[in-house]
Specification:
By secondary structure, this protein is α/β, with parallel strands linked by helices. The protein contains ten helices and eight strands. Helix 4 (83-90) runs parallel beside helix 6.
Length: 227
């Protein structure tokens, strides 16, 4: 069985009533991979906006393996200290990582965030020297459209993320830099300028699926949809 652990912020945990890109990717892999697939991790919940806490299990379709390591308002800064224990406990084959927007928006600059990427990779590999990782660049959100210094930090971080992947990639523990979701548009693919709607979920899932297919031969071409 191929085991994946999604690691991310609010775009990955999702909120009550959503499918999440995790669900969309699991659906795709169940068909495209040709073998059993599991999503694992120490958390299962969605974020409940009314409770202001990650306490909901109200998925639009709860019938999938909901394990993850994602949190509303969490970034590389928060996940780097947690990833080692999560990998040791849940033994994923592949980490699917979408982080950085929160870091750059509230906690660390591009260079500091890139250092936390390197700490995250080191922690994951300490727990499993053969772990594979797919890293998604930060998708600029509505704030980046109006805040030029923030937009510059996002652009700078994505350059440093690519450098980290190139520096740290190794045969026994490969790192992939996924391409940004093709055609992703804040007006049509998010519900608030940051968080993905159904179409956005598919595009993020497709970005991860495409990287794994092209580099590792995992699965087939993503069958996009909007439902």
């Amino acid at each position: 069985m191929l085991k994946f652990m999604p690691v991310g912020d609010s775009m990955t945990i999702g909120s009550a009533g959503e499918h999440t890109w995790r669900y969309r990717l699991w659906q795709h892999l169940c068909v495209a991979y040709g073998g059993p697939v599991a999503f694992v991790g120490p958390r299962e919940t969605l974020y409940d906006k009314q409770a202001d806490a990650p306490t909901s299990l109200a998925y639009a379709d709860p019938g999938f393996p909901r394990g993850h390591l994602a949190g509303w308002g969490e970034g590389w800064l928060h996940m780097a200290p947690l990833i080692g224990d999560a990998v040791r406990a849940h033994r994923p084959d592949v980490l699917l990582v979408s982080l950085g927007l929160i870091d750059l928006g509230f906690y660390t600059n591009a260079e500091q965030t890139a250092e936390n990427v390197r700490a995250f990779v080191a922690g994951a590999r300490e727990a499993d020297p053969r772990i594979r990782m797919v890293l998604l660049p930060v998708i600029p959100n509505i704030r980046a459209a109006a805040d030029a210094p923030f937009a510059e930090q996002v652009e700078r971080f994505n350059v440093l993320l690519a450098k980290a992947v190139a520096d740290l990639d190794e045969p026994r523990s490969p790192l992939l830099l996924a391409s940004p979701p093709e055609g992703y548009d804040l007006d049509t693919d998010t519900y608030d300028g940051t968080h993905p709607n159904a179409r956005g979920e598919h595009l993020i899932a497709e970005a991860f699926a495409g990287a794994m297919r092209e580099a590792w031969g995992v699965g087939q071409a993503y069958a996009a949809g909007t439902s």
